[in-house]
Amino acid sequence: MSPIDFDFLKKLYSRFADSPKDNSETDKEKIQPLPFTMADEDQRREMWEETGNLLLKQGAVAAFTLAGGQGSRLGFEGPKGAFDFGLPSHATLFRLQARRLMNLGAKAGKPIPWAIMTSPLNREATVQHFEEHSYFGYNRDYIRFFDQGMLCALKPDGTPLQDENGDYVEAPDGNGGCFRALAASGTLAWFVEKGVRFLFLCNVDNALVKMADPIFIGALATSGLPCAAKVVHKKSADEKVGIFASRNGKPCVLEYSDISDALRTTTNADGSLQFDGGNTGMYLFRMDALRKISTQELPWHAARKTVNGVANCWKFEQFLLDAFPFLGKIFLFGVEREDEFAPIKNATGNDSPEVARKWLGKLHRFWLEKAKVRIKPEMLYEISPRLTYAGENLSQEVFDRELGRGIFEFPA
Ligand code: UTP
């Protein structure tokens, strides 16, 4: 554990205790929508895919999973990536990510370097999950784990919180700490050594994540822009999802509470929402853009929470989303929710394991229907990423051979 910087904590505390407002919108800020188009409807799609595949063949692409969070809403004891959300194969989130990357790596003839950020609280359990599953067959030289930073929580009066043994109580410093930790851990240098030029970055919890999607990579590579994000249409004006927008001419993500009711509900002439680009937690960065961010001090956010039984403690975090204004421009890549976005956040209800399982089952059933495979319409399907990345290479023959091995059916 690194030594605690008490001076820094004191500064953070006085910044927030003296002025409780953190980074929220002020009257002077100019907020505007950032329009986007759906990638499926874009004529450049094929060209993007070819470019992306070429870059994968060159070994110019790596993946990076943010897995340092505590997953408190889900309430699962272990690291979220090790969560079995009830698929017939019992694939965990990490296994799905690994196998999707392996599918692409096999096609490219080169493994894709993959970094996983943990926190000191879940590092051991995460590595143990990989060990127990022989790293899912991933080439060990191409996986790297590293820890994000931790910050001591403060008591309501601003003094450091200690537990019953007198040890300081620390918590992860937020997913925005990933840029500093990437550089400090040597992972950025590891990528550069391997010839990586584009980094796909994602949350650990999206069951449908298209890891290192070649079309997405090609889109950014040919755009000349520093970074890209996948976005979905909002379900409704009231959906509580962060949205990409422009603030004072720079890209940003507005949280639900950052935007007024009036702006949130503004529509275009065709009735669609103006503020519509829902954040999915799937991003792509050029390496030089990443280097740039890793030298910036992102803003800090304060939250008042019960920590170790002490109410109203101070916890400080940085958010990855605050990196976007530093980069000046972003490519927004519109995708269909049902194809790519099923985050597991809560134990029940919205964004739950049950919903993710159903969405994956429906998507894979759709792939089989498209391949004209005879299936039972009332069943859902799970297809191993060993067989297909996004629905390609499926046929009646593959289905007959793999049912019960790499393809499973389960009730809707
Ligand atoms: P979330 O904001 O969904 O947080 O993180 P969480 O920890 O998974 O879940 P809750 O809020 O406690 O229920 C989005 C992504 O950022 C990562 C998470 O692991 C997830 O992939 N993250 C979050 C970190 O890597 N470090 C952090 O300090 C916080």
Automatic annotation (TrEMBL):
GO terms for molecular function: UDP-N-acetylglucosamine diphosphorylase activity. One of its GO terms (biological process) is UDP-N-acetylglucosamine biosynthetic process. It comes from the Bacteria. Keywords: Nucleotidyltransferase, Transferase. Pfam families: UDPGP. Belongs to the UDPGP type 1 family. This is UDP-N-acetylglucosamine/UDP-N-acetylgalactosamine diphosphorylase.
